[in-house]
Amino acid sequence: MQGRIRSGRTKAERRAALLAGYRPLPGARDEFVDAEGAVRPHWEPFLQEWCALSQDELLQRFGLADRHVHDTGVSYRVHGDIDERDPSAGERPWPLSHVPLVIPGAEWQTIAAGVAQRAQLLSTLLDDIYGPGEIVAKDLLPAAVVSGSPDYLRPLHGAPGGGTLQLYAADLGRGPDGRWWVLQDRAQAPSGTGYALENRLALTRAFPDMFRSMNIERLAAFFQSFRAGLVARSKRIEPRICLLTPGPLNESYFEQAYLARYLGFLLVEGGDLLMREGRVHVRTIAGLKRADVIWRRIDGDFADPLELNAQSALGVAGLVEAVREGNVHIANGLGSGVVEARALMGFLPAVARQLLGEELILPNIATWWCGQRREREAVLDRLDEMSIAPAFRSAGGGLDTGPVLAGDLPAAEREALRARIAARGMDYVGQEIVRLSTMPVFQNGRLEPHPMTLRVFAAATPDGWKVMPGGFCRISDEPDARAVSLRNGVRSSDVWVTADAPVEPLTLLPTPDRIAIRRITGTLPSRAADNLFWLGRYLERCEATLRLVRALLGRLIDSDPAPGRSGTVRRLGDLLVAWGSAQRGRSQSPATQAYSALYSLDDYGSAAASVREARRTASVIRERLSVDAWRLFGDLQSQLTPKEGRKPSEGEAYEIADRALKTLAAFSGLSQENMVRGAGWRFLDIGRRLERGVGTCRFARQFAENDASVDSLDALLDLTDSQITYRSRYLLGASLQPVLDLVMLDPYNPRSVAFQIERLEAEIADLPSLTEDGMLEAPRRLILRLAADCRTAEASRLDRTSILLFEQLLMGISSAIADRYFLQNSGPEGSRLTGIA
């Protein structure tokens, strides 16, 4: 690649274009160039590779990375940006910067040693805080710094692992002198490991040759060590590890679902867990299953509404009791957030000398806690030179948005802040304003310097603390390099740690001699089963609406209408209205009804609304869906979003419905061919079969009356995708009884009601039973009765009443499945402990 000339420009010319105008910001260190503007040696291999690519080739590589982000659905959510009707609506694409931060291996060793030391220090301090309390007793730490923190959880005092650290993150910034400083500690529920991994995957897709030639350290070993650390905390050889998420409305829910899938953990919400007999269990379709380790992503005080925050709807009642009894390991420990307090930072150097006998390798940003008179006065004397921040999380003090530069505040606000600090100093800290280093960002065809911070992760393992060889950067779009300005950083990038020799590829797969062969992927939580069931129903409902729209528009644009066509068109429109897909009224022409059924989000039965609900449901079980499946949801939403400024013609709308049906067929093929035939697939398929059976019954009641016209029967064959089968069997046109037999009773037709019933019978028979008395449970009883009725039915005796009975029995089976297997069931079967494991 190097040395070649492309697009008429030499490498030297491309280099000059990339670096044109690149200058470090005043008073800040730059990661890319030195004070004289010369490119730092460890960046040269990167720059050489880039300069071998033309502008068009660079943009093409960026497109590969961006498509990876889009196709895999990498997203985040801004706090407060929530639409409860559609959790996916507030998701924003992950803001990937295409230039990684390059750090030489020798320098990284110092960073890694400092982060590991700090993780060990905070872990030891937590043991002391929730144990003997010697640090406070020796006056190395004011008691108010501990007890005044809302993250100090008194019920955990003395509990085993009350504040144990399993995963730690440090936000670092480099000052003008070249030293790295700790800006903030993350010990509550550190986020970002999944995003770091996705940044890596995106940029290695864009620059695979560069990644290999620069000998970049891999990340897989870190995740392998982290998983091993969690397994070591369990009392069982093969523990059940759960990732406890606040749910799909959380800012980093994508990451949580992604990590659960990547690490093989069970993604659960608080409602999925239940405390019984001193142990925590997962509610599954097969009963309660023991949870051994819980990696929590909710704040500690929200974890148990019984002993902690009574208003929490995210936790598990009794969880603290299970922790006290040592029956479950929580990572991080429920009280670990206490060491995140900025008030603590000024005391850590002395605490490190006491607990570790060492000086800190990575110093804190200079911090003064205003709960002490001398420090408070020092802060007030130098207020204009300080960054003022909350001393504790959620401690109030008028700084809900985070740190502020007091000198930048209007005079009235600055004096009000001064008065609050003087009146209640314990709520505030003053911190030195550090100018952050800058790194290159590709913008406007060249590289530009932007301020950045670095988040580095450490995991507790059986072999000590392991530090991720990388992490991720937060990059600001603002030119202000002061540390406080990065709280709203809007880009992220990968961190490349270089090695002197080629790096051996690693994988999360264990060595062959340690693989325990299994054919079942694990327990299926009731919540996941519920959402898979409804995902199948929503997708099938969308398909039925699209078929109605296509049948209606096809008849409107037909230049040679068949006899009875107007009656069929009216019936199709009426069914769209009954379906909740369109409105009735004089102004609602059939074409208008078809457009509404395609696009309207206000009509709950429209194709667009069904896709929205399907995507909402899928977002809750994202960890169980492949990238290809998620991409198809995006395609469907794009196809069913109207283009601004113009209304499609009837022919164009017909093609839109047809393309959307093909996308749905692709999803169906994906689920049929790629999903393992486990319980998850079974509930997805049950949902589809029930919805298809109900829909076909409704079609038959509408179009197969005794006096039905040939065109109405043709419409029924169109809607059930049975035209070709019918014509291959019967030489004459559509006739009532053969059509009814084909769409209702023929077990060989995959679109018939009989076929759906046969599939349901087989699927329900494979579902787990909680009873041991030999009696059939409700779903099994109902499907056997329906299957017998269907097998003995005759087309000549079918009428609207008997078809309606089939439909009602199918709906009854749906309710019975929900009552038996899903979380909303509070009856006796749902509370049994049969099958606890």
Automatic annotation (TrEMBL):
Ranges for domain Circularly permuted ATP-grasp type: 100-475
Gene3D superfamilies membership: 3.30.1490.270, 3.40.50.11290
Top-level taxon of origin: Bacteria
Domain DUF403 per the UniProt entry, residue ranges: 524-822
Name used for this protein in its record: Circularly permuted type 2 ATP-grasp protein
Species this chain originates from: Bosea spartocytisi
Lineage, uppermost ranks: Bacteria, Pseudomonadati, Pseudomonadota, Alphaproteobacteria, Hyphomicrobiales
